[in-house]
TrEMBL record:
Signal peptide: 1-19
Organism: Aplysia californica (California sea hare)
InterPro entries membership: DUF3011 (IPR021381)
Protein name (Swiss-Prot/TrEMBL): Lectin ADEL
Source species, domain of life: Eukaryota
Keyword Signal tagged: yes
Keyword Signal: yes
UniProt entry keywords in alphabetical sequence: Signal
């Protein structure tokens, strides 16, 4: 469990160190099932930034083990290798805004999201011009969103205060 929390917990610790006031994570029980040892995932976007996941009840006879049977990314819960169970998922609620960003003349441009402690996701809503590729010519770091290389688009940006 400790390893699964590293990325999300690190972000929360950095945010706290920078004076961000985060609401405490809220938890809920989610039934997840990996039938036939297949991978199954459930996105929780744009509503949440997952901070931890634990097994409340294992219906699979011990297959729900951290990192191999279940886990999470920042906004997605997953199970695999026969894990079937009731998982306790804790997450911080996101707020989302629509933001238009333009890389005019292929130049880098960035903008801070008002009231954001950190951005948790950024998805293209509509695009004009050259392709926009995540982490290549658009992305986010902390409370900032950026574009480069001619990317011009309207984005849905979700963040934690």
């Amino acid at each position: 469990m400790k390893m699964l929390c590293v990325a999300a917990c690190l972000v929360l610790l950095v945010a706290a160190a920078h004076g961000c006031v985060n609401a405490p994570p809220r938890c809920a029980l989610v039934k997840m099932e990996s039938w036939g040892w297949k991978f199954f995932s459930k996105p929780l976007l744009p509503a949440a930034w997952i901070t931890s996941v634990s097994v409340e009840k294992d219906f699979s006879g011990g297959y729900c083990k951290p990192a191999s049977g279940y886990g999470f990314s920042t906004n997605e819960l997953w199970v695999a290798h026969g894990c079937r169970g009731l998982l306790k998922v804790c997450a911080v609620a996101n707020k989302c805004v629509t933001k238009t960003l333009n890389s005019n003349n292929y130049a880098f441009a960035s903008e801070q999201i008002e009231n954001a402690c950190y951005v948790s996701s950024m998805e293209i809503k509509t695009r004009q011009g050259p392709p926009c590729v995540a982490d290549v010519n658009y992305g986010f770091t902390g409370p900032y969103v950026w574009v480069n290389g001619g990317c011009r688009a309207e984005f849905t940006v979700c963040y934690v205060q």
